[in-house]
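Quick one before lunch.
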Amino acid sequence: MASVIGDGAVEAVRLADRATGESELVACDSLIAALGFTAQLGPLEHWGLDIVERRIVVDSRMATSVPGIFSAGDITEHPAKVRLMLVGFGEAATAVANAAVPLDPSADLFPGHSTDGPPPGAN
Ligand SMILES: Cc1cc2nc3c(=O)[nH]c(=O)nc-3n(C[C@H](O)[C@H](O)[C@H](O)COP(=O)(O)OP(=O)(O)OC[C@H]3O[C@@H](n4cnc5c(N)ncnc54)[C@H](O)[C@@H]3O)c2cc1C
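Model of the flavin-adenine dinucleotide complex:
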């Protein structure tokens, strides 16, 4: 979409084809934004990451092709990828655990369960 036309209320939108430069005015009385469906990698495209169809390729550790860079969530691509919120949370935990060990070789890949520690407030 190139522009929204209206005076106090939406009356039309101008749709533009970036490839051809052509545009079309479409009359409408409301506009519903559906943001975020297309990944815009921005500067990440120039970091040397292995990217397929605007998604960052990771291995089972959520490690990218660039050592020390990890990725999680919808932006990632791997053979078992399922784009759901809960999967993204799990991938984030995997990525953080696997990023922590190179930073601190004494750290354990498995960070432990929160229930392993003392109860809240206990010292
Ligand atoms: C219509 C629809 C319905 C869905 N329903 C469900 C559902 O019922 N249950 C479910 O589990 N999942 C659902 N999903 C999938 C779920 O929304 C995604 O799996 C989840 O949001 C992925 O989270 P994310 O943090 O990886 O990515 P996102 O939620 O997409 O977050 C990425 C963020 O990064 C920002 N961003 C993008 N590019 C840049 C940049 N260059 N610089 C800085 N920031 C940037 C974006 O604006 C966005 O805020 C649905 C998805 C869609 C599209």
